[in-house]
Amino acid sequence: MPQTLYPRGTVKKIVKAHANRPLSKNADILIFLKYALFMQEVLKEAGIASKRAGERGVSARSVRKVREGCLRKFKG
Amino acid sequence: MSESARKKQRVSPRASGDATDHSSTLYNDLHRLASIAPKPVTPFRRAASAGVTPRSATIRTPGTARTPRGGPATRPLPARRAAPTTPHAIRALRERANAARTPGHVRRRSGRVQRETPRDFLRNLSRVLARDTQPIEPTPATHPRNRRSALDLPDIDDDDDEPAAPRLSMPLDDMYDDDSFNEEPPRPSLLAPLPDYDYDNGTVQSVEFGRRARSEDPRLDRVFGRRISEQFGDLHDLTINGDEYELDGNFINRRGTLLPNDLLEQEEEEGDDTEAEIRALTGRRGRASDGDLGVFGDAEGEDEEPTFRFTIPQRLHVPAEDEEDGEEEDEYGEVDEETQRGMNETIIEDGEDEQPPVDLAYDDDTAPALASDNETGPLEIAGWESEPDAADDEDLQAYRGEVSAIDRSLQTPAPETPAKKRAGRQRRALNISRFGHEYPSFPAATVKTLANGFIKSQGSKSKISKDTLEALVQTSDFFFEQVGEDLAAYAQHAGRKMIEESDVIALLKRTRQVTDSSTYFSLAQKLLPRELLQQLRMEPLPKLRRQKRKRMEVVPEEDEDE
Known about the structure:
The complex is a heterodimer of chains A (about 80) and B (about 550). Chain A is mostly helical. Chain A contains 3 helices and no strands. Chain A has helices at about 10-20, 25-50, 60-75. The longest helix of chain A is centred in the middle third of the chain and has 26 residues, at about 25-50. The termini of chain A are far apart. The mean pLDDT of chain A is about 85. With about 550 residues, chain B is an all-alpha fold. Chain B is built from 28 helices and 2 strands. Chain B has a two-stranded antiparallel sheet. Chain B is rod-shaped, with a radius of gyration of 42 Å. Chains A and B meet through helix 1, helix 2 and helix 3 of A and strand 2, helix 22, helix 23, helix 24 and helix 25 of B.
């Protein structure tokens, strides 16, 4: 089996630790889907922010600036 | 000269004979002077810095919006290219254009603080003096000036009552002749005298001009005199003695003078040690010999002292060694010194294997010859204080009697290595969640591949830097924490113990990422690789069938597509 896009066990472990509940078999795929959407959003916003600040590429600063809003946006 | 003649024709009641006689009256001279003095064009002050200078901010009149000083062109407006869209922007732009279009005399009237150039002063003066003798024909441009001359009148009168009058009647040709021009310029009491050759800036010193950095001052290249208050810190730490001006002839060089008496007092107060410091602080070490040779003569010998002294405190020698020894003995209890040596070497040897030093106490005789190359081998559990000691113990062996400063210099890099190791460990090490579970941080490699993919899809060529990756990893940790809590809440609400796909779908729906028009499956198709997609497809179908018929219909379609 080729390497998957992400370490499934790790994601499961992380979410499980935070939720204090077990995950069903494929829930982690959907979680990862959500995570991918989130990363897309973060990088999009960070790209905008860094462009506005005149930086090249995506800087850590812009990611930090943007991430709170994105997290809020993705809060259920 | 033809210009002045023309001007004189304007002043009609004057006899024509006066027109030929240039230097006879004050009025003539002043008028001519005013026409010679540089006109108040903006680049005169703005030359060095194109941007918005502090100066422009200070000068700005209350009606700024209507009369921008330099016109719209001088302002850095980042978004000027784009056509204004909002009504406010449109209005603002129109106003600015109007302001730019207003003729000069109208613009001038707009504020109380007006541009005051030497030219203006001269014109005012000429008008004031000429009022008695000749009537002035008011041109349209004179209205504001007349009004302002009333403002300035007392000053000018005060200044020019007695001594200044003769200089105004100078012949024009001598104007650029430095010495003859103003032997005794009228000087305001507060300000220091100007050097002689600021021919067209003469009255400037009575007016408060904006301050600006010395490097930006456009007047610096001409050797104009400067106001003292333009130079920021000078007045505070220096006492001015007027002789220095004549020595230097230039304000710029004025800086070198301290009042010698003050310095002497300071020296007497604070003693010899601080003297070097004082000089270093005031930056006056080299200058001291410039002005006041006699005064500094006695201090001259001590000038050879270094400004910064590295003091190696004598009393630290013995206690330092004692300290180290004491610590080791505390740690290892009854072990005598030779076993200590062997032990330390084994510690260093085993340091690569990340053994805690407690285990090392067993071995006294292993490999005393080894480990000389592993001086910096870090020990993890031992405290900060003892670690460098262990690393330095070889030095202790070699340089028993030597200065502890060496040890100290060797010690400085040592604490970093354990810290670094600890950090590396912590990244691998598990974080602890709210419920006391340990969990790993999200792997950076995954974040990197994902983020690079997204960035590439956004069309930017640059890759993710290390800092950015770190921030992203942290962000994803936050994200998973939040997601975990949300999912737990959903599952609890459903009365389940386990988090299921439906919870995640509910989460996606709640954030409007799954809507009626876009299923989670289409999202997954966009973002996830095929094998994950397949696993996803196999499982959640029955649940969806129960819950949503609509989505049920979508899924098989996509099945057929593939």
